[in-house]
Specification:
Its cofactor is Mo-bis(molybdopterin guanine dinucleotide); [4Fe-4S] cluster. InterPro entries: Asp_de-COase-like_dom_sf, MopB_CT_YdeP, MoPterin_dinucl-bd_dom, Mopterin_OxRdtase, Mopterin_OxRdtse_a_bac, Prok_molybdopt-oxidoreductase, YdeP_MopB. By secondary structure, the chain is α/β, with parallel strands linked by helices. The chain has four domains: 14-78, no CATH class; 83-184 and 400-585, Rossmann fold (3-Layer(aba) Sandwich), CATH 3.40.50.740; 200-395, 3-Layer(aba) Sandwich (Dimethylsulfoxide Reductase, domain 2); 636-770, Beta Barrel (Barwin-like endoglucanases). The chain has 32 helices and 33 strands. The chain has a six-stranded mixed beta sheet with strand order 6-5-18-17-16-7. Strands 25-32-29-31-30-33 form a six-stranded mixed barrel. A hairpin with a 4-residue loop joins strand 5 (115-118) and strand 6. Residues 754-771 have low confidence and may be disordered. Bound molecules: ligand MGD (2 copies) and molybdenum atom (MO). The site of one ligand MGD has 32 residues, from helix 10, helix 19, strand 25 and strand 26.
């Protein structure tokens, strides 16, 4: 097929043959077809390993295969036969690598030995593990104080590795734990406890079979959690209404063919998903939620009065606030008509058990936490907690992002946890709050941060204001990346830099006591074991756990923690977790032996509210604005979203099948009406500029303008390419989560040959660089 960009409307259902074809293609490209197929069968099975793609749970029902197109892609890129060799590093300077696209970096394959940056030659050179740890330990010890170091975690890291990492860092003396969840579902983790006493979802997968209505707000399950489609298809077959609220009519929310349904596949059939599609404007969700509540409050019979009386407080204040919110405001901000909001409210009122799912379209706004609390309000009005088929369902991203937080990756640790940690190990953990992602970037820019260590992920490319952050990162004394593949974070590095390659989840991990297993927690609080089955990508790789333990020993020579014992036997780490978190993890090892693991206690599921008052709280948010107002005429809100062919900063291809784009990621989706108003034409080149009052010019040009059915004033484009437009200081106050779905911008024709901005830095993954 041609490498030329092409753009056309996608007319087919999502899923189906397209998904199967794409799966076969990536397995072929990464040369994993032979071992890939058997490996796929072990994915998400009780004795196998957990898919490293998304956090959607594995249902108890036993199927021959429990995977999806994007899970297969994640596995294919992890099990690729390609390797980054010494010769590669010897022949390519880091400055040359920096000119390549993210796709190219990723395509070089798996890293196989530790590398050290040599500033004299601008090359990464091989170094021994011992030398790497000794130097990292020495640099950390040489800091004036431990708060000068930043320790990032991305959500693939296992419970065992994350727990030890957090013990190491606290013994070292800081709570600087920037985490990928700070950019993701943190508004859920920080917002929801005020409402229901816990910052996690309250449903389990079997609830989907008992729900009478399902809402999907600001989430694209067909691409980002495809296994969720199985539950949605089943619900539609039971005539359960599904309400989708999204500025983009995502194809899988409209109609879907199950790749695992032979009859549907053979007959090219499909299932209609959304019974009501709400074409909300970007940032209009608060208005929609208040509109639905307004209708409900008109008919007190629709409410669960008994539940409200027995379990909640704050109803009167909420009712007064909702009453004061007028329809004209609701309609203008949401872009929806009152009639549609009334239809949706009627669906919600009729249903005796409703699940509300939501994703980044809710959380990544300046009032993301407050929007999550309004979702909780809506559910509380009808007692949709603690009964079968009902509850709140934040759909998390990384496969263990929830678990990492549960076991200690937290910049604001609770006193109870710190006391337990002290009781277990005897050292005095730091009590001051540490840095989340935004604080870390601020400290880098201010020059107070000196060392950055990344446990997985691609911090530098996932954060806001990337060009500013790149510059700040390169001023650090040392950067360390624990990683499987090359990414931007290895070419944007500190004065000293180390790449420490690790074993991946699909690979076996042999230590002194034999093959080890690790465990993860999915988005519905199920904890399960995972055991890799493939030979590691190279003989010199270490497990993340081993890397943490050796880094800790090199940094804290007199450590009181038995690091060596932990590396020899991971079940001892689980025993330690059980001691530090006795309520959640008692008998961890025993319970993990059950085929599908175990479910962590969730008070709200039992109508036990761990709030100061012991009740669930209706919380008032005045107004309907999800973001700070901006008044410039012609201003638009830009949502940075994922394509179908990427996993966060890992780009699988330049295609976005369901949005009809091939071989291009440097595009902007806009409605025809908005183009006309601005005198822009489809397929022309445009420049997008951020509107802020901070005096910094943020601009990305040379973008192809594509017609897409978005509401007026709303546009979309791809993350991470457009991250230079996202201002660091635009974040949700309660959680620190950057407002990546709501960047205030102007869009202008791009005429100049001189295109200042991001495309000049050579880091974009645009059409010009298609491999
Ligand atoms: N294949 C694949 N799977 C993934 C990932 C991946 O990159 N690729 N990433 C993983 C991670 S870490 C995460 S967090 C999840 C993310 O999964 P999602 O939450 O689905 O993330 P996005 O694609 O960023 O955005 C979701 C939707 O929000 C909509 N949206 C934008 N602005 C608004 C708004 O103001 N209101 C509403 N209602 N909707 C809005 C967009 O149109 C889009 O459909 O997926 C995980 N799974
Ligand atoms: N503008 C904008 N910005 C966003 C978002 C957005 O929607 N818009 N989404 C935000 C969200 S939701 C998230 S979660 C963050 C994601 O931020 P991160 O989690 O930091 O980014 P990823 O791209 O998932 O990280 C991929 C890298 O992880 C490494 N890796 C892969 N597997 C393993 C492994 O098994 N072990 C180790 N040690 N390393 C591994 C590889 O080097 C790979 O390059 O981005 C955020 N940034
Ligand atoms: Mo995420």
């Amino acid at each position: 097929m041609s490498d030329q960009p092409s753009y056309k409307t996608y007319m087919h259902p999502a899923g189906g043959w397209g998904a199967l074809g794409a799966t076969a293609k990536i397995l072929r490209e990464q040369s994993v077809i032979a071992r890939g197929t058997t490996t796929l069968l072990a994915m998400n099975k009780p004795d196998g390993f957990k898919c490293s793609s998304c956090a959607w749970p594995t249902p108890d029902r036993v199927k021959t295969f429990e995977f999806c197109e994007n899970g297969a892609k994640a596995l294919a890129v992890e099990t690729t036969r390609k390797r980054v060799t010494r010769e590669f590093f010897a022949s390519t300077t880091v400055s040359e690598m920096a000119l390549q696209s993210d796709y190219w970096l990723e395509e070089q394959g798996r890293l196989t030995e530790p590398m050290r940056y040599d500033a004299a030659t601008d090359h990464y050179v091989p170094c021994s593990w011992d030398a790497a740890f000794a130097d990292i330990g020495a640099e950390l010890r040489a800091l004036d104080n431990p708060d000068q170091a930043e320790f990032y975690t991305s959500g693939r890291t296992s419970n065992e590795a994350a727990f030890l990492y957090s013990v190491f860092i606290r013994e070292f003396g800081t709570n600087n734990f920037p985490d990928c969840s700070n950019m993701c579902h943190e508004p859920t983790s920080r917002g929801l406890p005020h409402s229901i006493g816990i910052g996690k979802g309250t449903v389990v997968i079997s609830d989907f079979a008992r729900a009478e209505a399902i809402f999907i707000i600001g989430q694209n399950p067909g691409t980002n959690s495809p296994r969720m489609m199985t539950e949605l298809v089943a619900a539609r077959h039971r005539n359960v209404p599904i309400v989708a609220i999204n500025p983009m009519p995502e194809q899988a929310l409209i109609k879907f063919t199950e790749p695992q349904n032979a009859v549907q596949m053979a007959t090219f059939g499909s299932t209609a998903i959304a019974s009501e599609f709400c074409h909300v404007r970007i940032g209009g969700d608060m208005a929609v939620l208040k509109g639905i509540m307004k209708v409900l409050l008109e008919t007190p019979d629709a409410l669960d009065q008994g539940f409200i009386e027995q379990h909640t407080q704050g109803f009167e204040a909420l009712a007064a606030d909702i009453e004061a919110t007028g329809w004209s405001e609701i309609e203008a901000v949401s872009g929806l008509g009152q009639a549609q909001i009334r239809r949706v409210a009627a669906i919600y009122a009729r249903s005796k058990a409703t699940i509300i799912c939501f994703g980044m379209g809710i959380t990544q706004h300046q009032q993301g936490s407050r929007a999550v609390q309004q979702i909780a309000n809506l559910l509380l009005l009808k007692g949709n907690f603690g009964k079968p088929g009902a509850g709140i369902c934040p759909v998390r991203g990384h496969s263990n992002v929830q678990g990492d937080r549960t076991v200690g990756i937290d910049e604001k640790p609770t006193a109870e946890y710190l006391d337990n940690l002290k009781a277990k190990y005897g050292f005095e953990p730091p009590r001051d709050h540490g840095h989340h992602v935004v604080d870390t970037v601020r400290a880098m820019i201010a020059g107070t941060a000196k060392v950055f260590i990344g446990m997985g992920g691609n911090f530098i490319h996932a954060i806001p204001d990337t060009p500013i952050a790149y510059e700040a990162m390169s001023r650090l004394r040392m950067t360390v990346a624990v990683t499987t593949k090359l990414n931007r974070g290895h070419v944007i590095h500190g004065r000293k830099a180390y790449i420490l390659p690790c074993i991946a989840r699909s690979e076996y991990d042999v230590q002194k006591t034999g093959r080890q297993s690790i465990s993860i927690e999915d988005a519905m609080s199920n904890v399960m074991a995972s055991k890799g089955i493939l030979e590691p990508a190279g003989p010199d790789l270490l497990s993340e756990i081993d890397i943490v333990c050796r880094m800790a020993r090199a940094t804290i020579p007199r450590s009181v923690v038995p690091w060596e014992q932990y590396v020899a036997d991971y079940s001892l780490i689980r025993d330690a977790i059980a001691e530090v978190y006795p309520k959640l993890f008692a008998n961890y090892n025993e319970r993990l032996k059950q085929p599908h693991g175990f479910h962590l206690y969730n008070g709200a599921r039992e109508r036990v509210w761990r709030t100061p008052s012991g009740r669930a709280n209706f919380l008032v948010f005045e107004g309907v604005a999800m973001n700070n107002p901006i008044t410039e005429p012609g201003m638009m809100r830009l949502a940075t979203v994922r394509s179908h062919d990427q996993f966060n900063t890992t780009i699988y291809s330049y295609n976005d099948r369901y949005r009809g784009v091939r071989n291009d990621r440097m595009v902007v989706f806009m409605s025809e009406g908005d183009m006309r108003e601005r005198g822009l034409s489809p397929m022309s080149k445009v420049r997008v500029e951020t509107i802020t009052g901070d005096g910094i010019v943020r601009s990305v040009g040379n973008l192809t303008l594509l017609t897409y059915p978005l509401p007026s004033g709303s546009i979309a484009a791809y993350y991470p390419e457009l991250n230079p437009l996202l201002p660091l200081e635009h974040f949700d106050q309660l959680s620190g989560t950057p407002a990546a779905k709501s960047i205030p911008v102007r869009v202008v024709a791009d005429t100049g040959p001189d295109r200042a901005g991001f495309e000049r830095t050579g880091t974009q993954t645009g059409a010009a660089q298609v491999a």
